[in-house]
Amino acid sequence: MTPGSDREVGVGARGTTSGVDDTYTGHDPRGYPLFIFTRDRAGLATHMIMNVEYRTGSFLVSDKAIYSMQLMKSYKGYELGALQVVVGLLMVQLASWPKSSFKVSFARNSGFTMGTPDGPPNGPADGPAKLPSAAGPVVLSSTPPPSREPSAMNDLWDEPLRVGTRKSELAKIQTAWVITRLKDAFPELLFEVVEISTLGDHRTDVPLSQVGQRGLFTKELDIALANNEVDIIVHSLKDVPTVLPDRMLLGAVCEREDPCDAVIVSKSLKNMEFRSLDSLPAGSVIGTSSLRRLAQLKTKYPNLVVQDIRGNLNTRLRKLDEGNYDALILAACGVTRMNWSHRISELLSPSEFLYAVGQGSLGVQISEESASKLLPLLHPLCHPPSVVRAVLERSFLKRLEGGCSVPIGVASEATLPSAKEPWTLSLTGGVFTLEGDQSVVMSVQKRFSDPISTLSETSSSKAFSGIALSQLNPVILEKAEEMGVNLADAVIQQGGGKILDHVRSTK
């Protein structure tokens, strides 16, 4: 059974259909036949074993070519390199299933396309695909695939792009999202997902701050990239150290989701109308693995008890529901990506509760050796305001020599309008004692009147806090980096440096 699924779907018997051999047909629990196959652009015979997982709103099609599709309710054909994958029969029926697992294979064929008992395939112009009846067979027609011109994608990357990711369900969902965006931009690009366990995934018996190593969730992925075992790595940006390993860069920062922290109250308390930290009874136990959250909770809610909690999101919610905690503090973006938004009781405003550097953003890491090819490839992922905010926050954290083992929080904004309008950057940063009795929080905002285009007319290879984006104007990133460094210096001068020294000495 696929990890995270609550049912297993068997693979149907091997058979032959209309000249197609090595055909496998699986059935979903409601009896609908599932059949997927590929053809190359010339209609030549192809064969490949694939996995199809439907989980929390995404399809993950995998072999040595792995591709993710966001939930769709209409027919579409997708390209995996030169291979065409027809997945229309799966789309509508699975829309309401929270978790399912399918294992099927692609048929060895000679140019056949998929149809239904009622006729030929429904293409995008014909509207949504019609699902066959439970008893009806999948019918193949002999319509040859249309000829296609070679893609310019081959000039950038002509091999499967190996994507490194952690093994957690959230990490795989995030990786699937990135692959989907790349697939939208480069339909013929082929993908292979490489799952890797990290030290942070294994060491769940002690608090993160006591493991005593930076890159808890990235080091093993870095090693794979250095050894040329993967081509890119998809990270939660908040996990990425501000100083990357030698000859490595962040080649993309994706559009940021809500960076706020979220409160998830236990079901028993929520049923009693306790829905916020302010309303929780004194002595309520709050679970978090973050020193930043712990310090701010002790500062603002001294009547609550903070206890460490480890494990992935599934594990933490299970511990909450088992009664070990009264509430959890988690990143809202992670809860949303797991389709658990309904569990959120309260969103903590950044004006009252600073979030982690990079929280809500995904970063894509590459090696310097492949930058010339991969930076243009990753450009569609980049979201200029999110990139600038990442540089703002990471330069602040880097100057303070911080990481997950020190209580540092931020909040930022970046308004980047058209080239003829001014743009504004703002950053709030704070450091806290673990006892909650001292803190230094400061803010800076700057409005730049000079018209500065967000897109650079010339290529720049300079990295800003590990972020290297040749298509973004380096002037903006230089201003952002300077602001972050200057705010960190101001925090240090106002006593923040002594607070951090105290935190490090008492760990």
UniProtKB/TrEMBL annotation:
Cofactor section: dipyrromethane
Pfam family, one: Porphobil_deamC
Keyword Transferase: yes
Entry's Gene Ontology molecular function annotations: hydroxymethylbilane synthase activity
Keyword Transferase: yes
GO terms for cellular component: cytoplasm
Role of this protein: Tetrapolymerization of the monopyrrole PBG into the hydroxymethylbilane pre-uroporphyrinogen in several discrete steps.
Protein name as annotated: hydroxymethylbilane synthase
